[in-house]
Amino acid sequence: MLKQFTRYSSTFIHGAKYTPEFKVYAYNANNGPNDKIISFFHDIPVNFNRDTGTVDMIVEIPRYEQGKFEIAKDLPLNPIVQDVKKGDLRFINNIYPFHGYPCNYGAIPQTWEDPSLKVTLENDSYFGDNDPLDVCEIGSTTSISKLGDIKKVKILGCIAMIDDGELDWKIISIDVNDKLASKINDVVDVEIHLPHVLSNLKTWFKNYKLPMGKPENKFAFNGEWRDKSKALSVIEECNERWKSLVAGKSSGKGLPIVANNTLKGTPGYHTISVPSPETQPTPKIAADIPLKASEIFYYKN
Ligand SMILES: [Mg+2]
């Protein structure tokens, strides 16, 4: 039923970056004439391999980027767009000494943190955040990542962030082509080869919403990083929940749009078409980042 296609090719970009019109679609030139625009969420294969410990990642936010770009689960064929809060395009504040996101950040396709599934961690229970699983890529020696890139990454570990009471796993990974990838096999190896990365990442996740007047994010397991084997299980579980979602077996309010162009036999197959362009328009120049977003935010804790 869930047919996988050959490796995906490129993106199709509508509108200029840092404007509300900006949309980046996954684009598969080899798909049928009316199916070239596909969904990042549903049509890009997860390519999860437990033996090699690898999975594919969609880059939503390249390292040091401030625009809060994410796969739109409520738009047909799920393009990447910039999040909007209270009518304004959302930029992540620079919390001292960081600039934007401290790592390449994105999603694992064909995974879903089910909001109706109660997960018990230690003594508390949480529901999923209704999004694809988040993944951080901490390498830096391959080409600079771009919004919409698909990378194969090695899975290293994870941390259970609790955001507004919802479970929001962050998987830690490194690009398989990074020069350190062969040396880093589990979360314990990260501190040896990339000192301070884990502690800084946790500090960042804990505090990045403070400038918006929100409280610190919390973590389950006393804020400890979990190892690779836990991360593999989390990915597997979220891939299973996604299979139920696209098979029409999940219920609840505000479920993601499941329209897709590759999953024959699913209720969402060929239900929405986005005009498939033959040529990419000339890229529009990005709008300026608002001055307010470039301010540095200091905090005590
Ligand atoms: Mg999430």
From TrEMBL:
Enzyme class: hydrolase
PROSITE patterns the UniProt entry points to: PPASE (PS00387)
Keywords, comma-separated and alphabetical: Hydrolase, Magnesium, Metal-binding
Pfam families according to UniProt: Pyrophosphatase (PF00719)
InterPro entries named among the record's database cross-references: Pyrophosphatase, Pyrophosphatase_sf
EC number: 3.6.1.1
SUPFAM superfamilies hit by this protein: Inorganic pyrophosphatase
Record-level Gene Ontology MF annotations: inorganic diphosphate phosphatase activity; magnesium ion binding
Presence of the UniProt keyword Magnesium in the record: yes
Cofactor: Mg(2+)
GO biological process: phosphate-containing compound metabolic process
Domain of life: Eukaryota
Record's GO cellular component terms: cytoplasm
Presence of keyword Signal: no
PANTHER family membership: INORGANIC PYROPHOSPHATASE
Family: Belongs to the PPase family.
Protein name as it appears in the record: inorganic diphosphatase
Lineage: Eukaryota, Fungi, Dikarya, Ascomycota, Saccharomycotina
